[in-house]
Design brief:
binds 6-O-phosphono-beta-D-glucopyranose; 2 domains; 499 residues; Rossmann fold; six-stranded parallel beta sheet; 32% helix
Length: 499
């Protein structure tokens, strides 16, 4: 049987996401021969433009080494001027899509359609309503030739209430299995490798619990501020909603979840939801003690957050947040999950550090070293970006007389695989959406549970007067965040050292 046609319909195609991420991702899949059958891309936007003009605009974003592939891929790239929020616009779009698939020799019912909503979040529900009313989203349950799926960008709601409302509105018109809520962190190779590392190696899983692990740190540090016209969006959002609710919690879920029964969406997402349900909802006292929020201030030549374009001058939004979270389940009870993310920091890096407990007896050094705290020699660092590696910190004997210890590292680096650059996140996720594999997308209940955790913190801030620390641009955040490590748990990693 000949493979069917896939039409990828980007609604809101004139935004920069399309040119920066979506088209290069789709092209990357085409060059890699990843698509099963022919693919057409149809960009839809109100901006008047011809297909030729659009292709020309997109081409400026294509990497030099992909230009050859682009020359043939672009033949399937079309532009359609329409207001996708108006009945007439959608009727015309339907005609255009039907005509395009017939040109390829396929009827609409033999063509799978992926509607990518690259729209303002407030337009998700109205767009889906009108697409559905025009019969554009009706399909048999997957797998079927004429499938219809939706990809929805973040932010999915701004709190639990709005996320629930959005889920309800979408579900009036489509089934949950048709909705692909995207979190691009799940498309990163190194994030997926957390699953491989844990479940395809026998040595880690027996240690992956509160008996052996003392703390888990997840850092998502960025050097960028909110330049590039993002100030107004960011000011409404802040670090907690922009990064923790989605990316940070998704990484946490993969680190903390139980082994799923299979890699099918139903199993993996089911396990992640269980982690979110076990995340302790913070009381106001806990928010005060275990959460630090801060914003960057003018440093040297760099303007502070309050002076950024689009940011309100009396803003109280955080650009940094650090949280000492707890997971109330059998595996993780008592292990702090130290989460932090921020903008305008010293170094851009994302990593997970699992710090193991001390050996039960310090045979070689006698009394505890490092003040009252024994040295914790073992940490597993999973570097997600820009370094892509897994490193295990060990102590070994320094050669020579006596028993002097020296820290060292066992290291796996993605570069060692000589497999070329890892594919960009959007490339992988777009392919999965086309193939109907929802494992790396967020289910409706998952997004709601993540909001529940975040809302408790937000509400606590509101009731506690939202204390806001400050940090200089180019540092690793406010000193207050150091206080989230207690007793002998150590300190935040620096993104460089292994112990
Ligand atoms: C986005 C956030 O979801 O992720 C941005 O809205 C952030 O504020 C970005 O900069 C970070 O993504 P990455 O892949 O560059 O780490």
């Amino acid at each position: 049987m000949e493979p069917n046609l896939t039409q990828i319909v980007i609604i809101g195609a004139s935004g920069d996401l399309t040119a920066r991420k979506l088209i290069p991702g789709l092209l990357g899949n085409d060059i890699a021969g990843a698509f099963d059958g022919p693919v057409q891309v149809v960009g839809v936007s109100r901006t008047a433009m011809s297909t030729e003009e659009w292709r020309g605009e997109l081409e400026e974003w294509i990497d030099e080494d992909a230009l050859e592939g682009w020359a043939s891929f672009k033949e399937g790239v079309h532009y359609h001027v329409a207001d996708a929020l108006e009945e007439e616009g959608v009727e015309r779009l339907k005609e255009r899509l039907d005509a395009l698939c017939e040109e390829e020799g396929f009827g609409p019912r033999e063509t799978g359609r992926l509607f990518y909503l690259a729209l303002k979040p407030s337009l998700f529900a109205p767009a889906v309503k009108i697409l559905s009313e025009q019969g554009m989203l009706a399909c048999l349950p997957d797998p079927c030739a004429g499938w219809r799926r939706l990809v929805v960008e973040k932010p999915f709601g701004v709190d639990l209430e709005s996320a629930e409302a959005l889920n309800r509105s979408l579900l009036e018109y489509v089934r949950e299995e048709q909705i692909y809520r995207i979190d691009h962190y799940l498309g990163k190779e190194t994030v997926q490798n957390i699953i491989a590392l844990r479940f395809q190696n026998a040595i880690f899983e027996p240690l992956w619990n509160n008996k052996h692990i003392e703390s888990v740190e997840i850092t998502v540090a960025e050097t960028v501020g909110v330049e590039g016209g993002r100030g107004a969006y960011y000011d409404e959002s802040g670090a907690l909603r922009d990064m923790v609710q989605n990316h940070v919690l998704q990484v946490l879920a993969l680190v903390a979840m139980e082994p799923p029964n299979s890699m099918r969406a139903v199993d993996v997402r089911g396990e992640k939801v269980k982690v979110f349900r076990a995340l302790g909802l913070m009381t106001d006292e806990e928010v005060e003690r275990d959460v630090v929020r801060a914003r960057y201030v003018e440093t040297g030549d760099h303007v502070g957050y309050l002076e950024e374009e689009g940011v309100s001058s009396d803003s109280h939004t955080e650009t940094y947040v650090a949280i000492r979270a707890k997971i109330h389940n059998w595996r993780w009870s008592g292990v702090p999950f130290l989460l932090r993310t921020g903008k305008a920091l010293e170094r851009r890096y994302t990593e997970v550090v699992l710090r193991f407990r001390t050996p039960p007896l310090d045979l070689l050094n006698g009394p505890p070293v490092g003040g009252n705290c024994s040295l914790r020699p073992n940490a597993l660092r999973i570097q997600i970006q820009p370094e892509e590696s897994v490193r295990l910190g060990l102590l070994v004997k320094e050669p020579g007389a006596g028993m002097v210890m020296r820290p060292t590292t066992l290291k796996f680096d993605y570069d060692d695989l000589e497999a070329g650059d890892t594919a960009p996140a959007y490339q992988r996720l777009l392919l999965d959406a086309v193939e109907g594999n929802a494992t790396l997308f967020i289910r409706g209940d998952e997004v709601e549970e993540a909001w529940r955790f975040v809302d408790a913190i937000h509400d606590g801030w509101e009731r506690n007067g939202a204390p806001l620390a400050e940090y200089d641009i180019g540092t690793m955040g406010p000193d207050e965040a150091d206080g989230l490590f207690r007793g002998c748990e150590g300190v935040w990693g620096d993104g460089v050292s292994d112990v």
